[in-house]
Amino acid sequence: MENTQAVPAKKIMLSGIQPSGDLHLGNYLGAVKNWTELTDEFDCYYFMADLHSITVRQNPAELRRRTVNQLAQYIACGIDPEKNTLFIQSHVHEHAELGWILNCYTMFGELSRMTQFKDKSAKNAENINGGLFTYPSLMAADILLYQADFIPVGEDQKQHCELTRDIAVRFNNIYGETFKVPEPYISKVGARIMSLGNPTSKMSKSDPNGCVFLMDKPDDIARKFKRAVTDSDTENCVHYDVSNKPGVSNLMSIYSSVTGKTFDEIEKEFDGQGYGVFKPAVGDAVIEMLRPIREESERILADKAYLKDVYTQGAQKASAMARRTLRKVYKRVGFVEKPF
Ligand code: ATP
Ligand code: LTN
């Protein structure tokens, strides 16, 4: 007899990274590494958030290069394009369209409270544009278009995810069930990697000295870890204590995330040995983790036709999903149905 029972649909995961700089260890441990572990259990959509990246002025040729590089790096990190939908945000015009609509359901007060807006406006005082301010409505559109269940991101994006939930609930309350209300998916270790040069601020591409890029050569990585700021306590012992030992604690988080060892195990492993032994050991672990990713990225990047094929198919698949949600939204808000 034919089996007529429907297979339950997989839950949907979706995330994006702005191609406004090269991918770094924080992006990898906080976000991309988790993505690779979700492939089989979820229906996953990952994209290059190029629309978001122009909220800060970009060099056009560099932006194009980084967008394609980022795709190669996603694949090299283990995100298989056969099993995941990988696409470029600007190729799916529904993002910009739903972004506009959601702007009209997002409050000025809500946007004003976003820490990323406050941080980025402080850093770009000469270019505090409307896009930087309304960025979270576009991010909400990215997520809600795909009826995503979970959003795998680092800790810093939690606030944007919560605003997305508020926008979805608000819209659903006015018009009836339209959007799935998503949840952030944040890993316990690695969700907030700090700068190697300043362990009280997060590792970020805008601080190249404290930042290890996925494409850095082994010598550069070793040098960055040897120079990592550790704490000025006299103990010189490897012990996890974020408030009093932020530098060593950050290195322990990195080491734990890379090796899978617990903080207790790490403390035992380096018992009686100082920072002088610990720092290069963390560097070596990172070098070995990143080596195959860098080599594979270089190999994939050389095949531009393959990359084009991946983002073409990704955009086609993403568009089909996005179109369905946008059509529903247009109807709900009262737009006349398009006759062609
Ligand atoms: P910017 O320097 O422009 O703030 P960024 O380097 O923080 O950028 P994003 O593009 O904003 O990188 O982040 C991409 C993803 O990586 C997000 O999911 C974010 O939460 C995560 N992420 C970024 N930095 C870190 C970090 N230091 N630790 C853990 N996760 C991070
Ligand atoms: N805002 C995120 C990038 C981003 C994103 C998204 C993440 C844009 N749209 C949708 C998850 C889901 C950032 O700055 N890291």
Summarize this, please?
By secondary structure, the protein is mostly helical. It has 13 helices and 5 strands.
Q: What would you report as the Rg, rounded to the nearest angstrom?
A: 21 Å
User: What is the count of DSSP helices, taking H or I runs of 4+ residues?
Assistant: 13
Number of strands: 5
Intertermini distance: 43 Å
Proportion of helical residues: 40-55%
Indicate the low-confidence ranges by residue numbers.
none
Q: Give the CA-based shape.
A: globular
User: Could you tell me which ligands this complex binds, including any ions or cofactors?
Assistant: adenosine-5'-triphosphate, L-tryptophanamide
Structural class: mainly alpha
User: Biggest sheet: strands side by side, in what order?
Assistant: 1-2-3
Give the SSE layout.
Elements: E1 12-17, H1 25-36, E2 43-48, H2 50-53, H3 60-76, E3 85-88, H4 94-103, H5 108-112, H6 115-123, H7 130-144, E4 150-152, H8 158-175, E5 183-185, H9 218-226, H10 246-259, H11 263-269, H12 275-301, H13 304-333
Parallel strand pairs: 1-2, 2-3, 4-5
Helix pairs in contact: 3-12, 4-7, 4-13, 7-8, 9-12, 10-12
This protein binds adenosine-5'-triphosphate and L-tryptophanamide.
Q: What descriptive keywords fit this protein?
A:
mainly alpha, three-stranded parallel β-sheet, two-stranded parallel ribbon, 5 strands, 6% strand, binds adenosine-5'-triphosphate
